[in-house]
Amino acid sequence: MARYPTNGLTLDQANAIIAAALAKGHELGLMPLTVVVLDAGGQVKAMQREDGSSLLRPEIAEGKAHGALALGLGGRELARRAQAMQGFMNALSDLAGGKAVPVPGGVLACDASGLILGAVGISGDVSAQDEVCAVAGITAVGLVPDTGDPA
């Protein structure tokens, strides 16, 4: 049997994260969500956009995940840094080609030792609710979410 590198999250994990995140959104009665899962190399592993999710939601969700992965910090910490160091965060966004959205809803997916395997970004409702869904997706596959706040 051939073995291939996964670069962090597997496709099965990414799809399960999305399914659990969307289920949490439905349970909470949220607006239509878009979920993007990036692997450890920052590449899109999987993405789903619910019916009714507005136009730029995929880009926003990817930006939340990409920003978290780029600095190895969850979206809540990125948001704090955006307030404290606006120039740096503007430069980060420029360097990332606009793919760094420093708000909650970008969550790192880590193994039990803290190794970052990828990131999840969700957009569609308020950022705090997007984050709740990302955490639900990550924990559903047995991984540890890092929101940027202490556990």
UniProtKB/TrEMBL annotation:
Stored SUPFAM superfamilies: GlcG-like (SSF143744)
Entries under Pfam families matching the protein: HbpS-like
Gene3D superfamilies: Haem-degrading domain
InterPro entries referenced in this protein's UniProt entry, alphabetically: GlcG_carb_metab_protein, PduO/GlcC-like, PduO/GlcC-like_sf
PANTHER family xref list: SLR1406 PROTEIN
Protein name: Uncharacterized conserved protein GlcG, DUF336 family
